[in-house]
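## tool: complex_structure
## caller: assistant
## args:
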Amino acid sequence: MSSLLSGQLLFAALATGGLYALVAFGLNLIYGTLRLLNVAHGEIVMLGAYAAYWAMTMMGGAPLFALPLAALLLGAFGFALYGGLFRLALSRPALMKRIEGNSLLLFFGVSIILQNAVSLVFSASPRANKADDALIAFADIQTSQSRLMAVAITFLVCLSLAIALKTSWAGRAVRAMIQNRDAAAIVGIPLDRLQAWSFAIGFAVAGLAGALVSLFEQISPFMGFPYTVAAFVVIILGGLGNLAGSLAAGLLLGVVETFGVAATSANWRSILVWGIFILVMLLKPQGLFGGSRR
Amino acid sequence: MSAGLVLEGVGKNFGGLKAVSDVSFAVPEGAIVGLMGANGAGKTTLFALIAGNERPSEGAIRFDGPRIDGLSPDRVVKKGIARTFQIVRPFAGLSVRDNVRVAALYGRGGFAGSAEDWVAAVLDETGLAEQADKPAQALTLSGRKRLEVARALATRPRLLLLDEVLAGLTPTEVAEALVMLRAIQAKHGLAILVIEHVMKALMRLCATIVVLHHGLKIAEGTPEAIAADPAVIEAYLGESAAHA
Amino acid sequence: MLARFSRALLVAAGLAGLGGTAMAQSAPPVKIGFSIAKTGLFAAAAPSQLTAYELWRDQVNAKGGLDVGGTKRRIEFVQYDDQSDPSQAVRIYEKLANDDKVDLLLAPWGTPHHFALAGVLERLKFPMVGNSAASSQLRDIKPGYIWFPTSAIPDRMATELATMMKGQGVKTAAVTGVQLPFSIEIRKFLMPALEKAGIKVVVSQEYPPDAKDLTAVLTQVRNAKPDAILSLSYPNDSVGFMTQAKELGVSAPFQFVLVGPTIDFFPKMFGPAADGLITIGHWSPHQKAWPRAKPFFDAYVAKFNARPDYLDTALAYMSCEILEQAVAKSGLDREKLRAAIAGGTFDTINGPVKFDGVQNAITPTAFLQIQKGEFHLVWPKTVATSDFQPRK
Amino acid sequence: MIRRTAWMWVGLALAMAALPQLGGDYLIGLGITLLMWIALAESWIVLSGMTGYVSFGHAVFYGLGAYVMVVCWNNLPGWAGFLGAGLAAGLFALAIGYPVLRVRGPYFVILTYGLAELVKFLIINTEAALGKFGRLVFGAPPLATLYYLMLGLATLAVLIAWTVRRSRLGLGLAAIREDETAAENAGVPVARLKLIAFALSAAIPGMVGAVMALRSSYFEPLQAFSPTVSFNIVAMAVIGGGDDAPGPILGALFLVLLSELLWAHLPEVYMIILGLLVIGFVLFAPEGLHGRLQRLRRP
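## result:
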């Protein structure tokens, strides 16, 4: 099909994939540094969406005010959660080992709690931000101002994260920590501080992603789960603990979803996504981009 | 066809890295052979190849004639070869008795009497009878090393692969363990291939010693001959001498 | 929000027999039971029905209570979360009837729940007016203890839609839709109906419920330049479809969106971009011939500070009205009540309703159009509150 | 002591068998739900409790069973659909088991979830292509019949879990859970054992799905393959605890009764409590209710 070459599709793939990459990044960061599989990650996205909705609809704020606010709030939440709970647990190795071994179940519990607490407080009715901004067109691509802004922000954030990981001291320290915690501790990397920041940044990025979602989609207390699932698919494709890999895999998933559907038919979308995911797991369990598995 | 274990030009690559290459030697029925070498010499890899945990990249491994390389570990056990692990791997949540029971029920079998009797006998021989109903995670290191041996022995092997079962033990414990191993070997008529860092123990236990260095076999012979072999001395001392 | 929680607590306490003294009524209250999805797949959709029930209860209680064959008795709800699971709903209704000994039943949310309940009601000999269920399969249900006031039944809808499109001079149409029961069923009847009306389907695409990006589908639609775009979608993907269609400049003079536009947030979200959309719905507050319509709308807005869902909330409220009027006539005896519902004609916010078998025999299958933010009935002519206006 | 416990279980089974004679529809319905979760959670522990391969996708077997049943309904005799459901689920597990069970730890958890989703979407697509929009089941057997079928399945599941736990197979599975490599080197044919456990833990959920399709007299893939089914199974097994038959019974009993008490007006609160319970048990009582009780009994 000639339509496969359209810039519109590429733009859509980048928009979707960028969002996946953003959500998955935080999940992978927390897994990498603490070996915790946060199944409640999608609920952080949901909280970010509610924060943005609150800022925009209740307080009448502009998106450029709501987005950083959501990121900040969720970042603070992550920081507090780490300080309040995990620091305590980390001081008890036996407990921490149990937390690590059962993090899926544990965060599954957290996820249920967050969903239903939000449903209790805000009711389960879906809500949505206004989406009536101006349209713009360039080349053969047509889109809205807020979508363009969202894509720009997504890529700016992904790019800065990637660069920070490669070049900054903290980024290198985090990567060292993912490679080998014990060795990292021995060479004097302050694990505790980095872990706290990993939580904060992981949550902030997820919160930002949620705020971006709220610009285009309806939000509800139960909206988070699909993002958890997408993020898991991405980090498995990219390799657990491989942060750059998960950014790439996020984009790849966007491409699969958009171009895969364009090349076949829309009803194949989920079958394609899950089929590819399962094949990769069976054939290349360490992820598409190599990377260490443990 | 010769009885016992025969390695013919066995090699193993991990990625581009040669962990073991072109190693040939034999462990005849009932013999005790020692395997020596510095860390990273490829001893444990060789064990993994023999026991079926890894598949050789080249060469052949035969046991009593037919090839066993490429068989899964449980099939190798059924042929009569059992291994222990250098870093002990007890079934931590199970009782000591159940640890041994697993091996008795899934091993080569064919022992006289009931499985329970066999388990009790193995526990006795390895000095674990009194701790049989404790969970395995409650054992001391020495106890866990014994459990490694007990579990391997319970499969009723004809060849036992012992990977540093003496490492980390106190001198008294080493002496006790040696007595135990000799008794076991004598009673069951086993062949044993043993990796050991405690040199004295190795010298006392084995009739033949094979020396690996960087994945290659550099010497094979009696303990005395090995102790005098210049290549071995070079490999063990030469490097440190060169670095000094 | 806190009020919601404390209200829930109060109700719970009341049920536990702690707060019963507050009710200074001589006649005992009428207990009305139902299940509703508060958790699970339908949790986001079900509140539109619950609000109708709550409004009705409060209105009736404010008037002194439900008229039960002459005596006024306060309404008390016994409600459970069915976790969006039909088999759970089945259990709940068995419990409501046998253990809680409720006097009356209201319907749960969702087609599968209604189907699952049909047999149970038959067995319990307990009449219930359904509401949100819509499927041609409901005609396979033996008439007896369940009725469906909806007129949005897929086969009839498909023919009506095709006829309406033909009347507007539509020659080509793009049909997209999500793979969920209601939309699949409509597609099944719509395709032959369009063909019969001489309308050519230039794009036909289905996508799974978890699809997020619809660009590929929408580009096809854009390239085909159809006279009509029919989006057989549910609220979730209706929003996705509309947002992305707007961005891509995909629009047609005749544009239909199945489920979603009637929910309060939808027109707010899209503002003028939603103008001209057609959707299913047979009720509008603008219909002067239905005197109860506008007061209901106003009372709802006053209570919830949001507009009712023109489809689900209206339907749910209708089912309450039908029950209310039937009980006034027959009292609580189940067989008498059954006869009253089956044989009566009811005055609802949607005009008169009478059942033929399980179906509503009066209310026509109709369509709403958003015109300057207001929902107007534009089809059929007999109930229209405004003329169809092509989208710009 | 052991005899007393055994009598207690027999008594419980008899009480469950007599329940339809004692109670009305509501009680029978509650019984079916309870037995359903017992059957599912017991089946789950045969794989996940005993080998440590935690499945987050057991809904796939449940859904497949339900699908087979509604497809067979009115075309084949009821028992054929019922057995066919179990057979289909078991065969499916055998077919996918070998590659799937090579994946371990968190990878396995997510893989099983993904498999359930894949099958769900394949069936959605098939049904959509057939122009089916949810299938109604007419003429389902009476409630009591379904109850006894479910009682049979739950009993069978309990017996399987109980027997496996005490068999050579169970010991091998425990060895795999504790250390798969060491198990292999002790002669345990791990691939085969895991496959057997997988098939055993799949067949009964298939039949449970078949019965539940009749119970709700409606089939729709999104419902039948809902991840909630998988999650509930895991929650019940974790809270009940351990790798032995009593655990899931206690877990299912506890959660079903709790939800029965709380869902009345506080459904969200019930879910929040469920979340707290899962967290609490994982952190502070990994041995579950069953383990706790045993520890209390043995001072």
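## assistant note: The CA atoms of residues 14 and 55 of chain D lie 32 Å apart. The radius of gyration of chain D is 19 Å. Handing back to user.
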